[in-house]
Design goal:
globular, single chain, 96 residues
Length: 96
């Protein structure tokens, strides 16, 4: 009997890829707005969040699907509650 690998990532269906990309872009835009309003460079925010500047830049461009832990780290680097970064995410379309 073949062994089942539980943690192996499975590819997303196309409709979920579009949805994920839309959410990531909205999150990244909100993150950039907060960062610019606080007059922080990518490097400054990355340093405060203990992340790499390239990673933070990729998040802002909507290229990364970040973890809850990294959302928490970035929020504290900005001096805001994590929920503030999540407030403007798009509504999910209901699928029948």
């Amino acid at each position: 009997m073949p062994r089942v690998v539980v943690n192996k990532p499975q590819p997303l269906e196309a409709r979920f890829v579009v949805e994920r990309d839309r959410v990531q872009a909205a999150f990244g835009s909100r993150l950039r707005d907060f960062r610019v309003a606080r007059q922080l460079t990518l490097e400054m925010l990355a340093d405060r969040a203990d992340l790499h500047a390239n990673y933070v830049g990729a998040v802002e461009r909507g290229e990364r699907n970040l973890s809850l832990y990294n959302i928490w780290r970035i929020a504290h680097g900005l001096g805001v509650a994590p929920a503030e970064l999540m407030q403007s995410l798009p509504e999910r379309a209901l699928h029948p």
